[in-house]
Predict the structure.
Amino acid sequence: MTKPTESVKRTSEIEEVSNRLVIHPISRALVTVLARRGVSPNAVSLAGLALGAGAALAYLDYAQWPMVLLGFVLMVGWHVMDGADGQLARLTGRTSEIGKALDGLADHGTFVLVYLALAVAAAQAEGSWVWIWAVAAGLSHAVQASTYEAQRYAYDYWAQGKESGRVLTPDEFRAEASGATGAAWALGQLQLLYLTVQDRTGAGAGPVHDALAEAARQRGRAFVAAAYRATHLAGVRRWNVLSSNVRTVAIAVACLAGSPVYFFAFEAVVLNLAFVALLGMTRRNDRALLARLDGPAVDVGDARAA
């Protein structure tokens, strides 16, 4: 087994509660077994995608509550695999940008398949107008999820010092992936699209991250970590309202209530309102961070308690 280069565990202080208490403990137990047997992180990502595909097939029959329950259980299985692939990559030292791309493909692929299944089944029962809501929900999900992940990656990088959390700009990724061919090139294009969305929403590397990098050079990473934690910890926790866990539960609830359209409307209206509010909050936190970077040192103990 390759020696890990950083902590295998996810950052508990920003984890969504069901992840922290249920999903990730199961994932960690699974990772121990997988690492011993030499299973690759990419194989785990693909296994998660297979579970997601099974959930989509179950949700095609959402009118039957046992199928909704099966879909929900398979989605929980996907969550476990989604937690395991990254932990396994860090434990075995097999992290890579292509691995991140495959992980993203498995994540988004699962929801694409589930949304398609729900839309097909609901359109047959209620009419083709359902597709309007389904497309709106899918596009909303893509933007929300990429920005949500960027917040978490940035916190891991700046507050926790985890190198795997560094968010590349689209230009940086193009330079790193310039020699890729075949499947690696295709996955790279998906990752590039993902990073572009993050960059356009202002959640990727930009002026704030440039200021952080300069402060790290001038005043040290410990100072930057304390400043970032003090200004962003509470905000990153609030971004958990856009986690996949919330959607997994909402899908099952909507189907049990009688129509996937309830979920599509929740995604496209309620979660978008939350998304806009969270972006505004993050901009304010960034301004507070920039002020701290120009001010006196932040007490690390106080920052951890924030």
